[in-house]
Amino acid sequence: MTTTRRLLLTALPKVPLSRLTGLLASVPLPRPLRRGFFTWFARRYGAELDDLAADLRSFPSLQAFFRRALREDARPIADGPLVWPCDGRIVTAGAIESARIPQVKGNDYAVADLLGDAKLAAQLDGGQQATIYLAPGDYHRVHSPFDGELVSITPIRGTLFPVNPPAVRCIDQLFVRNSRHVFRCQLADGTAAAVVMVGAYNVGDTVVSAPLGAIKRGQELGQFGFGSTAIVALGPGAPPLSLRAPEAKVRMGETANG
User: Fold this and answer.
1) Alpha-carbon Rg of the chain, whole angstroms?
2) Mean pLDDT, rounded, for 227-250
3) Are 168 and 91 in contact (CB under 8 A)?
4) Taking the CB of residue 96, how many other CB atoms lie within 10 A of it?
5) Helical H runs in the chain?
6) Which of 42-46, 49-53, 158-162, 222-226 has the lowest mean pLDDT?
7) DSSP output for 105-132
8) What residues contact residue 243 under an 8 Å CB cut-off, 6+ apart?
9) Which of 164, 157, 159 is nearest to 226 (CA)?
10) What is the pLDDT of residue 227?
11) DSSP 189
């Protein structure tokens, strides 16, 4: 099954199909149908509707619902140096060793390939990382996990493999093959850090919302369209990340300091 899935996903015209899905998801829904449709979607995918900042009828399309804002008090930002950048489930979390990050057990990839920046990768070597998968029902905005400075934002073109657990287990180097945005950062003490928003099948149009300059814990960095993956990488000397086990659930704004 793993080999068959790998062959099918590799052969699939992922980028054109994702663009088509994006267009369909952006089609305006008749206002009388919106509440019923989004309520069904929330039940189907486990989306939390109590946290919404707006009425369901205010979302003109499925794409708008994916990128929904939350009430200001829905995700309180914890005290401490690190918070989780998004809602989702842990894929891997732990040390960055030999400038590589594990995708799954026994399968890793080079940090330089992920970031497209060998110098930044060297600065992060010996630090720590957390990779978080956002399912379709999760809150789809990614926020800064720390106070510091956003130095640059680099889009890297690629394909759009799915990033759900079965695909992550069977597609080698998946996260460095997909399109992504790299947010190069520095903590307040100058320690190198990065947040990477990895695009996925049906998620080809990541929206960047943060300007360059000073950033605060909990400040929005960008938005996804239909579930994807966020990776946080911290250089040596940064506060320790909470080393959650794979599949552990995290929520944006909760403490991530181990």
Assistant:
1) 18
2) 93
3) yes
4) 21
5) 2-11, 14-25, 31-45, 62-66, 111-115, 118-124, 165-170, 174-177
6) 158-162
7) TTEEEEHHHHHT-HHHHHHHTTSEEEEE
8) 93, 94, 258
9) 164
10) 65
11) T
Question: Which amino acid belongs to residue 66?
Answer: F
| Residue 117 neighbours by CB under 8 Å, 6+ apart | 154, 182, 184
Q: Which domains does the chain have, with CATH numbers?
A: 2-66 (no CATH), 88-250 (2.70.70)
Is the confidence at residue 221, as pLDDT, over 70?
yes
**Catalytic residue positions, numbered:** 87, 143, 228
Q: Sort 144 into a burial class: Cβ within 10 Å, 0-12 / 13-18 / 19+.
A: buried
Reported as a single tens digit per residue, the pLDDT across 55-73 is: 999 999 988 998 999 998 9
How far apart CA 31 and CA 34 sit, in angstroms, is 5
Tokens of 76: 């309180």
Number of residues written out for the chain: 258
Residue 45: DSSP 8-state: H
DSSP 177-209: HB-EEEEEEEETTS-EEEEEEE-BTTB--PEE-
Residue type, 85: P
* pLDDT at 13 (0 to 100): 65
> How far apart (Å, rounded) are the C-alpha atoms in residues 210 and 219?
8
**C-alpha 206: how far from chain center:** 10
The answer to whether 203 and 138 are in contact (CB under 8 A) is no
- Work out the mean pLDDT of the chain and round it to a whole number: 89
Q: Find, among 67, 29, 73, the residue nearest to 50 by Cα.
A: 73
**Residue 124 bridge partners (DSSP):** none
Largest pairwise CA distance in the chain:
55
Query: Which pLDDT does position 218 carry in this prediction?
Result: 97
What gap in Å lies between CA 166 and CA 209, rounded to an integer?
A: 30
